[in-house]
Amino acid sequence: MVLDSNNHSVFSLHYHLVLVVKYRKKVFNDEKSNYAKDIFERIGSNYNISLVEWHHDKDHVHILFKAHPNTELSKFINAYKSASSRLIKRDFPEIKQQLWKEMFWSKSYCLITTGGVSIETIKKYIQSQGQNNK
């Protein structure tokens, strides 16, 4: 396992983010997805976020990224959704026909932590601590 580090800690923090287009409109293609991905990478660098994997469907994107412990994820996600919504609608005017209001993304999102092992493995590890000292 490769760990990231800063001055006082080592860490490996990966997240799976799913963002859905407002009203589940099927507006994504490769060009728009790559555009949204580029925005993610630019804004992410300001929040100590690195893109690991990106894939889109017609109405949503799946993003795997890693972050630092001090990253404010909700602030980053809101900043990304706001900026990308504005820029996508500006640079792809045909989207305005399907999404006539300001928002490009649904208000909600799915953010899941990921790890190298299952929750069950971690539970068993924690439960086993101190048993050799008895």
UniProtKB/TrEMBL annotation:
It holds the Pfam family Y1_Tnp. The gene is tnpA. It comes from Kurthia populi. InterPro entries: Transposase_17 (IPR002686), Transposase_17_sf (IPR036515). Residues 10-129 form the Transposase IS200-like domain. This is IS200/IS605 family transposase. It comes from the Bacteria.
